[in-house]
Automatic annotation (TrEMBL):
Signal peptide: none annotated. It is found in: Cell membrane. The keyword Membrane applies. GO terms for cellular component: plasma membrane. Keywords: Cell membrane, Membrane, Transmembrane, Transmembrane helix. It comes from Embleya hyalina. The keyword Cell membrane applies. This is MFS transporter. Residues 29-42 have a biased composition (Pro residues). PROSITE patterns: MFS (PS50850). Pfam families: MFS_1. It comes from the Bacteria.
């Protein structure tokens, strides 16, 4: 198997041709109804096909960047709307909860509706959410906007992740997947520092307005560039519970929830940590977040380069580095070199995490791409909401820096789980 980084993004592992894939088939999905005939992808990918893939990738960047925006703008939002830092973290929690419910719900509700239309609808919802957030005069209005963000994230990500095989020929699926999932990874590590810089330059409302503009541009691109994409088959409510009876899927979901909850429990409040414990101002914080983002892209590329290897090893290494980085950040105090090094390692480690987790899911559920995407997105969003919620409790009840210790423990547990599952799968 070969990984094909494109635009600096690590590839998601391809299933076809994989040696000894770990697939637990004790509980297969129900036999689907006869799918409607669809046109097969062409033998060679055209420029229009790659433009369609790029449009979906920018769409994933838009939805995930919008979700992460409050991380870099947490302090200005809390001051502007007169709420505490811990309460402002609910903007992350609520969006993630809504996304977790939306991923399977939108897939089931969409039925056989053309996937191009569904993606366009999700982008309209995102445009409305960002516009409402930019104009919000109180915290309750902002939370309404964040619920709409969650609906857009869950529906767009779950459907968009399964479309590479519909847009390009088999030989290019791995590269197309790399581009689409790269939008998620880049948003996770670059969207926050860019949003922070916009917020510092023009205010947090302008940052949300900028995302509304990007959402409108993506909507036009999707309608112009995507071909008709009739559903191959409708996802039924029983498909996802059937998938969760597979041991490999459950282990992967558990690892996902642990490491993502630990990461976002700490990362949601990284700006107050750097301000209070590190004694840093907006300029240095923006530079550190940008360095974190660059390191994250490097981690994404490195994880993609090792995509052919068992993903549990990549996940174990990345989660271990993440745990070590947040511990160093917790003890570095006002020692700026230690803080900078910890942020760079943290970004490097987290950049590899989504690639490794998606690789795990691809190996244990290669026969159910849309249902597998729903499990992945729902688990991801549940973990974000759990982490940011518990982190907010720790900030308000204990101390801001306590979230770093909260993040380290589940990340370390993920390393242990990945190694244990790897040994079991190897046998």
């Amino acid at each position: 198997m070969r990984s094909s980084p494109l635009f600096g993004i690590g590839a998601v592992p391809r299933v076809e041709g994989m040696s000894n894939p770990v697939v637990d088939t004790d509980a297969p999905l129900p036999t689907p109804a006869e799918p409607a005939p669809i046109d097969p992808p062409p033998e060679s990918a055209s420029l229009r096909s790659w433009l369609a893939v790029a449009a979906i990738a920018v769409g994933t960047f838009a939805v995930v960047s919008t979700e992460m925006l409050p991380v870099g703008l947490l302090t200005p939002i809390s001051h502007g709307l007169h709420v505490s830092d811990g309460a402002t973290g609910l903007a992350m929690t609520l969006a993630a909860v809504a996304a977790g419910f939306a991923a399977p719900t939108v897939l089931v509700a969409a039925g056989r509706v053309d996937r191009r239309i569904v993606l366009a609808a999700m982008m309209i919802v995102l445009f409305a959410a960002n516009t409402i957030a930019a104009l919000a005069q109180n915290f309750a209005t902002l939370l309404v906007a964040r619920v709409l963000v969650g609906v857009s994230i869950g529906g767009f990500w779950a459907i968009g992740a399964s479309l590479p095989v519909r847009l390009v020929p088999a030989g290019s699926v791995g590269r197309a997947s790399a581009v689409i999932f790269g939008g998620v990874s880049v948003a996770s590590v670059v969207g926050v520092p860019v949003g922070t810089m916009i917020g510092e330059w023009a205010g947090w409302r302008v940052a949300f307005a900028a995302m509304a503009g990007l959402s409108a541009a993506v909507l036009v691109a999707l309608l112009v560039l995507l071909p008709p994409l009739p559903a191959e088959r409708a996802v039924r409510p029983r498909d996802i519970p059937a998938l969760l009876r597979r041991g490999g899927v459950v282990a992967g979901a558990a690892a996902l929830v642990l490491v993502i909850a630990g990461h976002f429990g700490a990362y949601t409040y990284v700006r107050p940590v750097l301000e209070e414990a590190g004694g840093l101002g907006p300029g240095p914080i923006g530079a550190l977040l940008l360095g974190y983002g660059v390191a994250g892209v490097v981690g994404n590329v490195l994880a993609g380069a090792y995509a052919a290897r068992p993903p549990h090893r990549t996940l174990a290494l990345a989660a271990g580095l993440l745990a070590a980085a947040v511990v160093v950040l917790a003890v570095s105090g006002t020692w700026t070199p230690g803080t900078a090094a910890a942020m760079l390692v943290w970004g490097l480690a987290y950049g590899a995490v989504p690639v490794a987790l998606q690789g795990w899911m691809s190996r244990v559920a290669p026969d159910a791409p849309e249902a597998g995407s729903a499990v992945f997105v729902t688990g991801f969003q549940v973990a974000i909401s759990l982490g940011s919620l518990l982190g907010g409790v720790a900030v308000d009840a204990v101390a801001t820096s306590s979230v770093l210790w909260f993040g380290a423990v589940p990340a370390a547990a993920t390393t242990l789980l990945a190694l244990v599952w790897g040994r079991r799968a190897g046998r």
